[in-house]
Amino acid sequence: MQVIDPKLVPTGLTRIYAWPRVRMALIVTLIFTLLLSPTWQVAYWVLVTRLTFITGSALLVFGILERWPARLPRWIARWVLQIVAVELWIPVAVFIAYRMTTGHLDVPFWEDSDHLTGFGFFTFVGTLIAPWIMVTSLLGKIRGEARSQALTFALERSRLERNALDSKLRLLQAQVEPHFLFNTLANVRELVDSGSPQASKVLGSLISYLRAAVPQLNQPFTTLEQELELVRSYLEVMQMRIPDRLQFLVHADPQTLGLQCPPMTLLTLVENAVRHGIDPSEEGGRIEVRSELRNGKCRAQVIDTGIGLHQSAGSLGTGLTTLRERLQLVFGDAATLRLIQAQPHGVCAELEFPARREQ
Fold first, then answer.
1. What single string gives the DSSP state of each residue in 52-69?
2. If DSSP codes are grouped into helix, strand and coil, which group holds residue 171?
3. Comparing C-alpha atoms, which of 216, 340, 347 is closest to residue 285?
4. What distance in Å separates the CA atoms of residue 171 and residue 191, rounded to the nearest whole number?
């Protein structure tokens, strides 16, 4: 759950005299003074002083009972205790207010009929209106706590959804590892079985390649420069296996080299081009890997001159499906992957994703 800094939680008088409560008290005071001042015999400042003391002290009693006592019997709700206490306090507050503002009189205010009538009026109106003011304050507090709780739940839900997405992304990346390793080792096995003198050289290049590639499988992001290095190493290994049937070119806009992308993104496209475009073709073909920066997005292309979509579209395997899911998890709808029929034959796999640089 969300952890709230204790320093940010209002305490003491700051909590009791929070602005929403003070604002309500000021509004009540202003309304009553405006209504009573034309007919009231005392000075306006005396009227304001009395009402301010009554409302302010009522807020103090109400606020103290929010936290004290810490525990209450089960048969009484805290809000009931607060309202009852304020109701009992109102006559006391009115008495103190009158006592403070009538000290200059020759007799106590309760012996003066006009002041006694005023005392009774304030007591009656105060005990009548105070519960409604307190209920309004309680409703405001409940709404504030509900908003805070809803925000806490939303943050927690967002964190859990993020963790779920991260877990799914790691699972998809883990699927890339055996997919790539099995395909590559199968190629080396073919060389060994055929007694090719290139087998040892290819295996050495493969070991160097895997030493650099495997650690990146567990990383959420890599740079396009690192990805292109892996692609180049992979194509060198493949070219050793079929030197007369595979040519390749890797060309990248220097502005794209520092951009972030999920590991094995371009490698998946290149591997599909070799496996489903070049390998099935008797003549082999050429693979070009390009990247450029356009309108705030990186566009990467893997173009092969293999047999094309009409023969290989149905046999691309899990590579592109997994890649699409990974791109969706990382970039959402901001990333696109398209397969385009190249002319006169072959496939262009075009990938666009937001240009985000390494932090």
1. HHHHHHHHHHHHHHHHSS
2. helix
3. 347
4. 31
Residues recorded for the chain: 359
Residue 247 identity (one-letter amino acid):
Q
Are 298 and 341 in contact, with CB atoms under 8 Å apart?
A: no
How many angstroms separate the Cα of 85 from the Cα of each of 142, 150, 274? 20, 31, 83
CA 124 – CA 135 distance, rounded (Å): 18
Domain annotation for the chain: domains and CATH numbers? 6-158 (no CATH), 196-354 (3.30.565.10)
**Can you give the pLDDT at residue 4?**
40
The Cα 84–Cα 56 span in angstroms is 17
Provide DSSP, 183-229: HHHHHHHHHHHTT-TTHHHHHHHHHHHHHHHGGGGG-S-EEHHHHHH
In terms of Cα–Cα distance, which of 354, 355, 320 is closest to 334?
A: 354
Cα separation of 31 and 26, whole Å?
Answer: 9
What is the pLDDT at residue 179?
53
The mean pLDDT values, 10 residues at a time, for the chain of 359 residues are 42 71 78 77 81 85 82 83 86 89 80 85 83 74 73 74 57 50 71 76 72 64 86 82 86 90 85 86 90 91 84 54 80 88 87 83
Q: Please give the model's pTM, rounded to 2 decimal places.
A: 0.50
